[in-house]
Every structure is written in structure tokens, then in C-alpha cells.
Amino acid sequence: MLSVEELQAGYGHSQVLFDISFEVAKGECVTLMGRNGMGKTTSIKTIMGLVPARGGKVTISGHPMTGQPPERVARLGVGLVPEGRQIFSTLTVRENLVATAANRQKYADGWTLERVYELFPRMRERAEQNAGTLSGGEQQMLAIGRALMTNPWLLILDEATEGLAPVIRAEIWDVIGKLRAAGQSILLVDKNLAVLKRLADRHYIIEKGRSVWSGNGADLDRDYEQVQGYVGI
Ligand SMILES: Nc1ncnc2c1ncn2[C@@H]1O[C@H](COP(=O)(O)OP(=O)(O)OP(=O)(O)O)[C@@H](O)[C@H]1O
């Protein structure tokens, strides 16, 4: 499981994370919600070792991982679909998918090109096309497929549907629902309360670099107005 305790981080002189705590257990789908600029992406980057932690603790599958480099975090089976996708635009779709493929946990039913193509038939159609020529939604599908090809026990999606057309968003949420139903652990960073409420087991809210609320679906129903206030819709 992933456990984050009282995490602190920042950039230069500005501290951005003051006290972030949350957990994701195996098989869970958990959300990190909050308005723009509250520290969601910074939390993910700090967990991934892309931003140095200034305090607190990150533990992954029992290993103390605070401040460890990204490749060590990846080796422990954490796959990130970053904000802005960051696919290799001069490689083809297929090359993107195989470039970082790995099955470190030696899953018998690991992800293959074929399985990614089944999940995203459009990737099969565009297999030999340069990734830079894909639409935004297709690039997001590719970024998810690429992360799955590393066979992560935990898939982290940072603003997976940001800036996409509603029909493409729905397609991506649908895929995330399928992954969840298949037992994939998922951490979703997003603001889309209505969809997340349906998809996830538990939720955390971040406000100005602090974890300020957490709960399951029933808690969310009870505190809906308060949570809406935090998320800003
Ligand atoms: N590379 C950076 N250098 C300096 N400040 C940064 C950097 N990246 C983010 N920040 C600042 O840190 C704060 C938190 O940003 P962060 O991206 O973590 O928020 P967020 O909750 O993910 O919001 P968004 O939904 O807009 O991505 C913001 O004030 C932002 O301006």
C-alpha cells in the first residue's frame, strides 16, 4: 500500500505542502481533490521523487520511500500518468507503449500490447502513427496505456480528463471504471466530484497544502456541500 504522512514540500523559498496525509490500499480507488493550486500535483511529484520532500514520510509496500528517486518508486510498482501526458511525440504509438514496458512484479497476467489495444481499440488503429499527431484524448489514452505497460500495482492519474471533450472524458472514465473493477489500485487527482463519487472508494481533500477532509462515499454524501465548497464547483 501507499502511505503518506504529514508530507511537506515546496519550490525554492515557497512552501507548498504543509501537512498532506493519505493512504491507498491494494485494490482501492482513492481520490485527491481540491481547487487549482492547492498542491495536488506537488503531492504526486513528491511521492514520485520528482520534488524533494522537506518533511513527513512516504511508505510504499512497507518500504520507506521519502525522497527516493523516481526510478526506485517506479520499481516498487507505482505508475504515473502525469498532468500534460508527456508522451514521446516523435515515437509511434506502439513505440511509446513498448518503450517503458516492464513486469517487475512478475504478474502472470501482465499487460501486453494486445491487452492495451483491447482496452483502447483506437491505439491499435493508430499503432504506427507518430504520437505527436494524436488528438488530446488519444494522447491521454496512450499515456494511460503506457503506464499500464509497466504493470503498476498502483496507477496514479493526474487530471486524466483535463481539457478534453465530454465524450472523450466519458470514454476515459469508463476505462478507469473497468480497471477498477478488475482490481487495479488507482489514485485519481481531479476536481470532477460527480464522477469521482461514483468511481472511487474513498476521497481526500487538499486545501492550501493541507489534508482537510477525508471520507468514503457515505461521508461524501453527508458532507457534500462542504466538499463542493472545497472543490469549488
Ligand atoms: N515548478 C514550480 N515552481 C514554483 N512553484 C510551483 C511549481 N509548481 C507548482 N508551483 C506552485 O505550487 C502551488 C501548488 O501547485 P500544484 O500544481 O501542486 O497544485 P494543484 O493542486 O495540482 O493545482 P492544478 O489543479 O492547477 O494542477 C501553486 O501555487 C503553484 O503555483
TrEMBL record:
Domain of life the protein comes from: Bacteria
Organism per entry: Rhizobium lusitanum
SMART domains referenced in this protein's UniProt entry, alphabetically: AAA
One GO molecular-function entry: ATP binding
Transmembrane intervals: none
GO biological process: L-amino acid transport
Name this protein carries in UniProt: ATP-binding cassette domain-containing protein
Protein keywords: Amino-acid transport, ATP-binding, Nucleotide-binding, Transport
InterPro entries: AAA+_ATPase, ABC_transporter-like_ATP-bd, ABC_transporter-like_CS, BCAA_Transport_ATP-bd_LivF, P-loop_NTPase
Pfam families: ABC_tran
Domain ABC transporter: 2-233
Family, per entry: Belongs to the ABC transporter superfamily.
